[in-house]
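Q: How do we represent a protein-ligand complex in a form that can be generated token by token?
A: Start from the inputs.
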Amino acid sequence: MPAFEALFQQFYDKVLADDLLEPVFKHMSAQHRLHVAHFVAEVLGGPKLYSESEGNHYQMIQKHLEKYLTEAHRKRWIQLLLETADEQLLPADPEFRSAFVAYLEWGTRIAVLNSQLNEIDMPADNPMPEWGWGVPGGPYPPAP
Ligand code: HEM
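Then emit the structure tokens for the protein with protoporphyrin IX containing FE bound:
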């Protein structure tokens, strides 16, 4: 969790310094970075910090309604996040990186789609997404 918190801390610094994304995020709450870190960590199998004390899937989806995000926003968001992951030396093993990117592709595309709507037909108790770790194994040498 500390690695995810540090990742999103630095990532949103980059977002606020980015001409395309700054207008989208300039009103984000002080807790935004932590909430997104906790959400992503939970989806990938980490502690249930987000769903037990900060929100739920339904509330997270609601946050994106009527934000009118574009494909350009989405691409820049992912690009900056992956850059930050490399700078922070997050594990580079194929399983982690492929699961991470696959979830981000899915989640950001959902965010763009939902951001065009002003309401969404979704049960308020909709469960958190849970991401798998893909096809495990090599061929490559295990990490030391
Ligand atoms: C996997 C992808 C994503 C996840 C997990 C995610 C998660 C979240 C969460 C948890 C919140 C609520 C934060 C809070 O409680 O303060 C939020 C809000 C928001 N997200 Fe996302 N998000 C994703 C993708 C995106 C993308 C691609 C964009 C735009 C480029 C975006 C724009 C926003 C905005 C504008 C808000 C509201 C900020 C505000 O309160 O002013 N999100 N997101």
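Residues 24-25, 27-29, 31-32, 35-36, 39-40, 55, 60, 63-64, 67, 69, 73-74, 77, 104, 107-108, 111 surround protoporphyrin IX containing FE (CB under 6 Å). The helical segments are 2-16, 22-25, 32-43, 49-54, 57-64, 71-87, 94-115.
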